Amino acid sequence: VQAAVITGVGAVTPVGASFTESWDALLAQKSGVREIDLVHTEDLKVRIGGQAKLRDADTSRKIPRSHLFAVSAVQQAMHQAGLDKFPEGCSLVVGHHGTTREEANLISEAIDVSPGGLAISLRNAFGPIGFCHTVTTACSSGAVAMGLGLEMIRTEQCDLVLVGGTDAVISRATLHSFYEIGALSDRNETPTTALRPFDRTRSGFVLAEGACFFVLERETKESRSRAIGRLMGWAVTTSTDSVAASCADGEVQAKTMNLAIADAGLDPGAIGYVNAHGSGTPDNDVAESRGIVRAVGSDTWVSSSKGSTGHMIGAAGTIEAGFALQAIRSGTLPATVNLENVDPACEVRHVIGSPRTEKIRFAVSNSFGLAGSCAAVVLGGI
Amino acid sequence: MNVLSFSTWDLDTQWTHEFTMERHDRRSCHPMDLVSLYAAKRLALDHEFDSSTTSLIVGSTKRSTIAEIAQEATETPPIAFDPYALMKSLPNLAPYLIGKYLGLTGLAVQLSCGVDVDISSLIVANSMLRSAKSASVLVVTAHAIGDGFRAVSLLLEGSRRGTGLCDLTFREAEQLRDRAVPANEVFSTCAGAIEAGSSLKFGTRAQNLSFDVDIAA
């Protein structure tokens, strides 16, 4: 079993223009959900979303928002890792659900808005790059990208790989269609408390946008001296019960977590914290709770970050893995924002009310997506 | 890597529902997903494999079709919404369908790297086999060809010469070989060589890198 060290992390989220800002906002239990002004929503049932905070972006260049988020997050991550351009032999794996019509219409037809086009925007910003893979497994895209990056290190395809996720999916089409399948909360009058993971009154998730990237490196004495943590294992499985619904009894979710924990060379009892997918949809939260108990028991601390950030789709897996890593580093477990009355069907050991000081060594981050894609990554400290 | 089996499917010439599909699955299929499913199912008819140890990698040039459903569905709400439109737009619908119809519930990844997706799929498949993450990998790639769509499926395992149809190796190259094929025709070219039982060496350029691909009969 081989881990990769993480030497940098960067993010753009609805609660912060950097990873640090986003973490601080999560601990302060702030929500980034508000009335949408990116697109007109007067005639839609859902008018709220998590619009990302983007500072000092060069918007004069006609590139999609999701690409702008990625450039900013990658820049932060590379800065922390001591890099200012892509080093020779560097690879890239990106989780990216896609580009919305609004984004596509904003930009020149000459710009490649296909998922693979994101690599071009990053090359333009940071120089030539080696292998570039774009993963599109819906809401698990970011987590799967992390796993594929880890395998590239393990199989010695590269010594350094940027892994991350980015998406800007707030559009009239997505707001409408996700609402129609019952996935979105329509609490337009109370946006900051609309997304309520594991709460009795939860009513669905809130679409959000942003990016989060990590620098992964082969572990050496030198890279370890700069490391902020380790990516230790991962797994992705497919639930074919339904294209839209979770595996209700939590079996697939538990299997995914256990495969990831085994891939990290750990026993389930070693896991001190689970950053749950916790989307706030009625079905997911029940099924995931069952899966967590089956996989790691009922004594492991659990929280979801989506009450703060909203659901960042292709970037959700990476920002939540980042929060899990920061929980290990800081010894502080973030509480689930907007969780007030735990649904009895979601009985796990919730971090509720306020952050909790707890020294943990290993954490799992779950990401479950449409079309049955279930992913989990395992993080560890240095 | 060892090629255990392969199959191709062209949607323009073979647009028949030869395989049983549930009606709602047909309705919610993007043609790129459908052709991928057919290529995978045809391979499964020819070659039995252990679904518990086989991973699935699907690569296609299907864009995220959020933009497409926007045109169909949301110009001026209220909308007569087709609940299948969102599913049809899912970039990762093909691995779900292939998993469902072939009983694959393990590692499944959808790649959407533009025309480079053939070579990306090979790289990822190679990673999964080398790291022993999978005993075998079913790789399916699909592309728009003229007015239709073509998918090619390859069942790969770690190199054990002599146990399959042929060996397939690829590596980064300093420069392209004389015989170069476009990155999105790598799988079709491989399938053609395998079908003809001939060895073939060719180069391709993808992601600013050159690759050599060898098919050893």
Account of the 3D structure:
The complex is a heterodimer of chains A (382) and B (217). Chain A has 382 residues and is an alpha/beta fold. In chain A, 31% of the residues lie in helices and 21% in strands. In chain A, the strands form three sheets. An eleven-stranded mixed sheet of chain A has the order 5-4-6-7-1-8-15-14-9-10-12, sandwiched between helices. In chain A, strands 2-3 form a two-stranded antiparallel sheet. Chain A has a two-stranded antiparallel ribbon with strand order 11-13. The mean pLDDT of chain A is 92. With 217 residues, chain B is α+β, with helices and mostly antiparallel strands. Chain B contains seven helices and eight strands; from the N terminus they run βααβαααβαβββαββ. Chain B has helices at residues 23-27, 31-46, 66-73, 83-89, 93-102, 117-130, 186-196, and strands spanning 2-10, 54-60, 108-111, 136-145, 148-157, 166-173, 200-206, 209-216. Chain B is globular and about 50 Å long. Chains A and B meet through helix 4, strand 5, helix 5, helix 6 and strand 8 of A and helix 3, helix 4, helix 5, strand 3 and helix 6 of B.
